[in-house]
Specification:
The chain has helices at about 1-15, 70-80, and strands at about 20-35, 40-50, 55-65, 90-95, 105-120, 120-135, 140-150, 165-180. The chain is mostly beta strands and about 180 residues long.
Length: about 180
Amino acid sequence: MKHLSIILLAWMSLFQTGQGLYACKNAEISLFSSAPIEDIAAKTSSGQSVYNAATGDLVFSVAINTFKFPKSLMQDHFNSDYLESDKYPHATFKGKVQEHPDLTKDGTYPINVTGVLDVHNVKQTRTIPGTLIVSNGTVTMKSEFIVKCADHHIEIPRLVFHNIAESIKMNVTATYTAAK
């Protein structure tokens, strides 16, 4: 986690501090896989993100091993067999919000973020839809999108092929505060 904070702070230093720069240290991320034998769900509140409203630049990172599952065996397999979190400890997204919502006005704004999603050390250019919500000076971004295991070379052994879906639904909620 310390390593990730240093990376985010370095990224923030590239931009002038002050108005327009927002940070989130506790983004909530959930994943859900519906499969014939058993649904799989996990959550974390350890996502970190920086958003530069002036440029639209957005960077996001989460440590894979922070996802918590209802069953410890699921968590063990997720980290060791599928995402190989010792080898690939983080999932990241670096992109740009295409729209420029007025953050001085309360409202809900549809947005699209185009950038590179890096999961399992496989980079994929994506445009991810979302919603940006401004309420009393607080900026929140929400998104729901699908990640296909095959797109990131996440292999599902034939033995458990019916237990795990090939597409994983991701939900992300990040509430930002103005960086000082």
